[in-house]
Amino acid sequence: MDNMQYAEELVKEFLVFRGFMNTLQIFETELSTDVGKAFQVDKILDLIFSVYVPKFQADKLVGLLSFFKQCFSSSSEAALIDTLSKLEVSILRYYIVHALNSARQDKVIEFYGTYGNVLLQRCDDWTPWFAIPYMKNPNLDPQFRVYFSKEWFDALLLLVRNFLSEIFNGIHILQISIEKNTIKRLKKDIRQLNLKLSQLQAMLEAKESELSQLRTEDRRAVLTEEEFPEAKVEFQETFLGHTSPISRCRFSAAGTNIASASIDGTVRIWTYDSSTPTSRNATIYCGAEIMSLDWECKSDRLLLVGTGGGGIKAWNVDAKRVVCDLNTSAEFPSILDLKCSPVDPIFVSAAASRGKGSSNIKRLGFASLTVWNMKTWKAMSVLPLGKDPPAITSLCFNHNGKILAASAIDGMIHMFDMSASLQITGWPAHDSAVSSVLFGPDETSIFSLGTDGKIFEWSLQNQGQVLWSRDCSRFCRWESIGTSRHEMALDSNGRRLLVTSDSVRSPIYQSLVLFAQVQGHMTGFKTLPHSAAITTVDWHPTLPIFLTGSADHSIRVTSIL
Asked: Are 504 and 531 a contacting pair, CB within 8 Å?
């Protein structure tokens, strides 16, 4: 009885919520005259056989039978669902027989027009029944004669009555009881989660206090970037040829080629050998600002170029031609980053829609992460980011390509399992947008550079723990260089971190791991100067050689001792 009253209260609550006041009054009137307070199977039978069938309300009949099926959901109720399905077939056939007996062949044809495809997909041998409205005397046909007999109808009525009486009277109320207990359990879980949330908030405040103290200690213990000595250079070579500020430059996987791009949509390929002068291999005209570059990881032949016009081009260095020209959807025209897997023939594109703001950061809208097959040049999947996700600015694979890190303009870092195409974790890394993200040398940590100029090294073994931090805001201001983002690069040993700069020099932070483990001064260097801001950086894959691209239209290759 308690469960019945609980169900009635749920119905009343729903009617009040929807504003169905007339229905509520009728419901309360019927409750007041309900003496037995029990499941009334006769009213269900009258509804089916005295209303829906005689009045040819096929849609309501089918809807009611579907509702009955929804009352059985668990695998343990498979036998009940099977029985109900057989009864459903018989009831629908009775509907057809009644229409024929009433000389309403049009209702049979109308019924098949609406539900015919569904019936044919079942294993109940409905095919012969599609001929019945066109037969002269189907009641005399041996295949259908039994369905026109009173004995068959009486047996059907009895079967439906017994089924509803024996099953729904217990099962439906049992489900209400289960639902009631589930709600109680959920309320208890919510109280426990609120308590846990309070504890986590207290822990977060403690961690923020520790982080603030760490930053203060950093400022006391280390040299400032202005005090860094100039790097000791073995040689330096300057590439000229671009006619607008450099937006990106990248060493190829083996370091034998260099790609440089400028905001006027020009990409130049340079053949590089430290023992011979550099020569230009090719020039690519893309017709839109170049926002991202990446080389295929298994060879030095294939370069991917992402533009601000939604284009992704694949350039073959040996053939000196574009081998594939892809376009993202018009909704996401800005290709902010491209990353090739170090193992599989795939790459991921981080595309962004256009925002409505006036600043660089506000001009970026929502994000789309697409995985592409480099053999077929087709999109394979879209990585999940939730509804209306903020733009993704930077991507980085781990060494075996199983994990992808992505940074976003809302300060989040996301981590994806590429084999499952699922996000496995994520955390708020900055109070501002994150412009660049890199895995640490042993992949137990990850570096992030925020548009506020702050650099953090995050532990991947103890998520949320900051292993090292640095404030280089005097070098990195989001709006100053006019490109989509600042960036950073680690050398092949993971001991030198090179960062872009609004100044003519860039800082090189050195011995990051050592600094995180011992107290003392952090060493670092400054690059030799360009004549304008340094807009892009990269390291040679094996040698102590780095690239710098500048707003002065030049690219420099520098080897340090």
From this structure: yes
Do 359 and 320 touch, CB atoms closer than 8 A? no
Neighbours of 209 (CB within 10 A): 10
Find residue 422's DSSP bridge partners.
417
Phi, psi for residue 476 in degrees, rounded to 5:
-120, 105
Give rounded-to-5 percent helix, strand, coil for the chain.
35, 30, 35
Question: Distance between CA atoms of 536 and 262, rounded to whole angstroms?
Answer: 11
Identify the residue whose tokens are 């005689």.
54
DSSP helix/strand/coil, 194: helix
Distance CA 308, CA 554 (A): 21
Cα–Cα distance measured from residue 36 to residue 22, given in angstroms and rounded to the nearest whole number:
24
pTM as predicted: 0.60
Burial of 275-295, coded b for 16+ CB within 10 Å and e otherwise, reads eeebeebbebebebbbbbbbb
Residues facing residue 539 across a β-bridge: 546
Q: Quick one: which of 499, 454, 429, 506 has its CA closest to 218? A: 454
Q: Report the C-alpha gap between 154 and 528 in whole angstroms.
A: 98
User: What tens-digit pLDDT sequence spans the chain (561 residues)?
Assistant: 556 676 777 787 788 878 888 888 888 888 777 655 556 788 889 999 999 999 999 999 998 888 877 766 555 567 778 888 889 999 999 999 999 999 999 999 999 999 988 888 876 688 889 999 989 899 999 999 999 999 999 999 999 988 888 776 555 544 555 566 677 778 888 888 888 888 888 888 888 777 776 666 555 444 566 678 899 999 999 988 899 999 999 999 999 999 999 999 999 998 887 666 666 678 999 989 899 999 999 888 899 999 988 999 999 998 999 999 998 888 999 999 999 999 999 999 999 998 776 556 667 889 999 999 999 999 999 999 999 999 999 999 999 999 999 999 999 999 999 999 999 999 999 998 999 999 998 889 999 999 888 999 999 988 889 988 888 887 776 554 444 578 999 999 888 999 999 889 999 988 554 444 444 444 788 999 999 999 999 999 999 999 999 999 999 999 998
Other CB atoms within 10 A of residue 148 CB: 17
Which among 237, 324, 241, 244 has a CA at the least distance from the CA of 283? Answer: 241
CB 332 within 8 A of CB 352: yes
> Does residue 493 contact residue 540 with C-beta atoms inside 8 Å?
no
